[in-house]
Structures are given as C-alpha cells and as structure tokens.
Amino acid sequence: MSIEHRILGKTGLSVSAVGFGGSETGYGAMGIHAVAKLLNSALDAGLNLIDTAECYGDGEEQIGRAIADRRDDFFLMTKCGHSDGADGPDWDPAMLARSIDRSLKRLRMDYVDVMQLHSCSAATLADGGAIDALVRARDAGKTRFIGYSGDGPDALWAIESRAFDTLQISLSIADQEAIDLLLPKAREHAVGVIAKRPIANAAWIGRRPASDWYSRPYYDRLKQLDYDFLSAANSVEVALRFTLSTPGVHTAIVGTTKPGRWEQNAKAASAGPLPTALYEKIRARWRSVARPGWSGQR
Questions:
Q1: Domains, the chain, ranges and CATH?
Q2: What mean pLDDT, rounded, does the chain reach?
Q3: pLDDT digits over 285-296, tens only?
Q4: Which three-class secondary structure string do you get for the chain?
C-alpha cells in the first residue's frame, strides 16, 4: 500500500495524506502494547504524521513509550493551552512554558515538529502572550513550527495574524464551513492545513444515533443532509476522499483504536480524489441544507 505524501504548506514537511489522530488512544481505551503495535505498523506502512495533545489523557505518554525510539520516522504534532494539571490558568504564558516542557518529557523527545495552540479564542490570540510562549519555545528548539487548532472566526484571526505555520480545522461532509471561510486565506498565506474529524466520526454508521457530545451534532446534520451515498458500503471511503479532495487540505488525521482501521483509511485515500461531479454534488447539498449554526465543531 502506498500512502500519498503532500507538502504541508510553508513548513516544507512532506507528510502522509492520512495521519494518525491520538485522541482515542489517550483515554484508557488501549494498553501500551496495543498502542505500540498500532503505531509501529502504521509507520512501517508509510504513515508519518501523528497528532496528540496535552489534554488527551495519557496520550502523549503512550506515544513516547511506544515509538520514541523511531523519532526519525515521523513528524509529531501536539497541542497546548489547557493547563490540565499544570500550575496556572489556561493560556497563561508561564503555564504554557511549563506545559510544553511537560509534553516533551511525556513524549520522551527533545522537540516536536509542530506545537499548536488548542482552540483558544481570537481575544486570547490578540492578547499576544500565548503566541509569544510558542515563539519562545520555537526559538529554544522545542518545536520546529507553531500552529493553531480551531475553527470559525477564531481560526480566521489566526490565519490573518500570519503568526502560524499550520492550521488544524474541522472539515468533513458534515462540516464544510471552513471551505469558504478559511481555506482561501490559508492558501493565500501558504499555511499548512490539517483536517481533523475528516470522516465526521462516521456518525451515520450504526443502528442507534450517536449519543456523545462529540459525534451527535454530526449525526443530526447528516440526517438532514441525507447524502445518497451514506447507505453504500464504501461510504467512509467517499467521506474521507471528499475531505482530501478539498483544495488546500494537506493531510487528514483519523483517530482509531482498531489496528485495521487506519489501513482501511489509507487504502481509501490511495483511491485518489473524488470524481468532480460527486464532489460538487456533496458541496451543493451542503449549500442547500446547511443551517447558519452549522459551524466548525471543535
């Protein structure tokens, strides 16, 4: 299986089109041996981008224990901003400095490739202290690049500030606000774009509606969007290819605890862009059905 690689904007990093999202493995769902097997098999097959965060349970520690000895085989992104037990309030510059050091210790690494601010408001960004904390970390060699993870007007402020090298946004068949609001500006400023939740949590699959706050909004949206391909056996493939076909998206991170699932996603991505007619049909359906409140889901 060959995984396509794309240049992540002005970072110049050649990243796999499908990356690994570490949120699901960080909340006690998997033991270290299962995490190591999952991540090592992904790296062996060509996946080279891993994303996590300081607030994903023991996610950073799991990654560090599992693959720190393969540091040259992948690019690593983590997020900061929520104190999550670190001394100080969220977004405080001194707390951020301690949190970044804690992340590196947990990861058993000297640096990350991208350190991202985790969904803070435009007002927090405009204050400048949080951005300065990341700049200092970059200057100290603790991160190669800095990024912002978030959606909507906050993400637009982040792009227009020109302070960030990368942007992590929600984008899927159930979450298309960013296509018009954010991606044109991101392309203009050569910002590397990472799509999170690129298959909308596969919220349409199953007999019962999603009950958690993370997936239920997508389930409700998809009931109204009622795409005709959702009942097809390859519906997840179509959803992922839609996200990866969107101009300006460089990589899509998918979280899973199932060893075979990322292989399925990589295989789907290898099928290439959606046919233009199908892509435009999905976009047209969104434009005709989407409600004003259907903003990016963090």
A1: 5-202+247-272 (3.20.20.100)
A2: 93
A3: 999 999 999 998
A4: CCCCEEECHHHCCEEECEEEECCHHHCCCCCHHHHHHHHHHHHHCCCCEEECCCCCCCHHHHHHHHHHHHHHHCEEEEEECCCCCCCCCCCCHHHHHHHHHHHHHHHCCCCEEEEEEECCCHHHHHHCHHHHHHHHHHHCCCEEEEEEECCHHHHHHHHHHCCCCEEEEECECCECHHHHHCHHHHHHCCCEEEEECCCHHHCCCCCCCCCCCCCHHHHHHHHHHCCHHHHCCCHHHHHHHHHHHCCCCCEEEEECCCCCHHHHHHHHHCCCCCCHHHHHHHHHHHHHHCCCCCCCCC
